[in-house]
Amino acid sequence: MASRPTKEFRAEAVRVALTSGLPRKQVASDFGIGFSTLNRWIQQDRRSPEKPTIQSDLEREIAELRKENRMLREERDVLKKATVFFAERSK
């Protein structure tokens, strides 16, 4: 009797299938599972409310990067003003 795959194994197979750009048949073969099994896991993952989807992960990362970008621009502007200030004082 075969052992059941772990949650981590299933999650990794689903992640690779959704993000790698490889055909699902190849991903299923690489993981040693059936094509229909992989598709079922993907459908279950998409219906799972407790786990954030890849899309929401990407949206969160984009929001964090935008916030960091805004802070870096503000820091740059402060440094520009300080440079002008000290350049005028040294004359």
TrEMBL record:
GO molecular function ontology, one term from the record: transposase activity
GO biological process: DNA transposition
InterPro entries the record matches: Homeodomain-like_sf (IPR009057), Transposase_8 (IPR002514)
Keywords: Coiled coil
Keyword Coiled coil: yes
Domain of life (superkingdom): Bacteria
Pfam families: HTH_Tnp_1
Keyword S-adenosyl-L-methionine assigned: no
Positions in coiled-coil regions: 55-82
Name of the protein: Transposase
Species in which this protein is naturally found: Rhodothalassium salexigens DSM 2132
